[in-house]
Fold these 3 entries.
Entry 1:
Amino acid sequence: AYKRQTIRGCAGMTTTTLKLNLGPQHPSTHGVLRLLLELDGEKIISCEPDVGYLHRGMEKMAEKLSYIQYLPMVDRIDYLAGFFYSELLCRIVEKALEIEIPDKVRAIRVMLLELNRISSHLLWIGAFLMDLGAVSPFFYAFREREMILRYFEKISGQRMMYNYFVFGGVRRDISDLEDVEEILRILPEKLEDYEKIITENPIFIRRTVGKGFLDKKTALDYAITGVNLRASGVDFDYRNSDYLYKGFDVGTVVLDEGDSFARYKARILEIKESIKIVHQAVEYLKTAGGLEQKLINPLTLKLPEGEYYADIEAPRGIASCFVVSDGEKCPYRLKWRTGSYYSVNLLRKILKGEYLNDAIAIAGSLDIILPEVDK
């Protein structure tokens, strides 16, 4: 998986560079990501990401499916954060039909979205540490994530592809919150354990501090959003302007260091912030009455002719959905904007000048998931 080539340098000297394929079968590229690296010794001269190995035509398929037929599929765009993409498609339809969802539905959706964000970040922490050679944190993170997945399975029947949000509301009411309260009770203590194991670990610090530096300008130039942007000092969290989170106290986690360690630390702090938001949703739901919602009849659902757009703060950055409707039951065109796609493109920039043994740590710190890239 390599190719040597000789380039002529100054004063007639020659240097041999090596082109190396990192992936698409490498276990630490998190799916089928292929990075074509050009090396001068151990130093990375250039990086060319090659994607498309997982392409499933999710956008094209939407043109032949009604909105209700397409809804169960969108969880698969990011199988670790399916609630966010269900919310996006529901948001498009509700916006087009000018439907305002009840406060209780908003609270349920916020609670599930933030629990989904926590479960996604927990998996990332475990996988990131596994990439760096630490096996135990992988099992610890999955232990806590399992509690959340069991709750998702309890309310939706599924551990990953939930299909729980529907146009105008949710499939069924949530009355039992004891499982969520147990998760909220246990998680803060477990996060402290993670930090004792990871944050002060000298090996972890040497592998991440100062590696894969991303400054504000580069982050904005490459359209980076979410945790990766905020870990580079940019104070922007879409939840603060999202109508779904209206009435919720949402703090923004911003760090200035911009390296792989900052991206790790920002996600730990994001989990703590999500725990706080879930607490608020649970307290509201305890006193809320029954679920009163006017669901849209999916068999007669047609969006008025026009263009519709919606955003959401997903775990890997802002996710967006753009729909062009011609007034029929199926979208005329549909496009997804995902955070991972832009993070992969960023590897061209931040891997240049780094060393091969740091490439996995830097790529892992961006939290890339390939279904979001290939769609």
Entry 2:
Amino acid sequence: MKDILFLKPLFFEKIWGGNKLPEIYNFNYTNTEFPLGEIWGVSGHKNGISEILTSPFEGMSINNLINSEPDLFGNKTANGEFPLQIRIIDAKEDLSIQVHPDDKYAMKNSNDNGKDECWYIMDAPENAEIVFGHTCKSREELAEAVEMGRLEEHLSYLPVRSGDFIHVPAGTLHALTRDIMAVEIATCSDTTYRFYDYNRKTSDGKKRELNLKESLDVVAVPSIYPVINTKTAYKANAVEMTLVDEECFTVKHIKTTKTAVIEKEFPYYACFVMAGEGTVNTVRVKKGDFFILTNNVKKIEINGKVEILAAYSK
């Protein structure tokens, strides 16, 4: 089967306490040995490379497959690594205030790619807000707020609820907050600079490392808020929404009620099944599955009540 490639999720332990994500959200995963903070479902990054579960490539890493069978991806991947990541993030506590660099800064200072990301909010408590930007007008004002321990006074907040979509470009000060679960789609990077972590201590009594110099170097001042032009296409038994369409990534939300046909606009789609079950081109999929639709697939035929996020990078 070279049309649909299923991927093995990678599990990462939560730093702060919490519940076991698979038990709460019923994603059909089997690893419940420790509280999970993140699940990497699609990744070509060196810190967590996805493994193929589908024959004849079972056991291969996604990057090895890209190098050996580039046609499966339409020769649209660069540097021999898959260019996107899809993660599930389970925030049982407020996450650290952070910022991501662009490619130029990350390559020079962290030997990594820069990071643009976006979040699809799957679950959020009533009246939830996320940290999104700041109110400082100059880098000097922001640096002083950090030095004086008054950063929280200058944070901007964005109200969110289940079903919201947020684009977080490189340079945006941001953080998910308590009890939010999100699907994160990002460029292939694992570089995060921490501004602030609420003075919390880990189990060994130490505060987490901050990256104040790097954070101040790369944060946008004043904050820049992206404009997202969502496009909705209604089809027989389906709604296809283009949530964001940028050079870094295009993300689509596909929701079907029964048999539907969706046009495929790029050689590959990286996919996550958020809800439901059914078939995609006659292959059974269910909630929690991560898979790649390869260049062999020209049209997507979905049968069933299914909700899928699909992404690619130009």
Entry 3:
Amino acid sequence: MAAVPSIGRADQAAAVRPASADAYAEVLYARLYDRVFGYCLYQLGSREEAEDAAQITFVQALRGLRRGIVPRVEAAWVFAIAKNVCLERHQVRGRSRAREVLLDPADIDVAAVEDEWDGDDTARLRDALTRLSDAQREAVLLREWRGLSYREIAEEMSLSVSAVE
């Protein structure tokens, strides 16, 4: 029994593969969409982004199948595509966050004139922040000032997401 089990499975899978790339992609979509969506949701933290990423994953899989790619392990191949899609979305989010403007440029002049903060508010905020532990203060500032998600804060501070929440 020196046979490699994956070869047997690959041969069996090849026997049940649809002939056309489009039909094959449809089968993969029906079999794997829920799992890919769950993975993307875990990675991205947003249902909308996860739905987009899952759809992009299967579009890219279809393109690959049309180019003649024949995956040995279908699920692993599709999840590798999903991983790359999620990584790309993280990179795009990082670049767009760096350019993000908190106010509409037309409203900046109005905001400067309508300064709602007085010395009392600033002092109370400073007091509240100094009463927090260093880790809590850092988490609050990362969340409120830099606008990071809980997952991003957890990565930045080397903590679990639940600890950050």
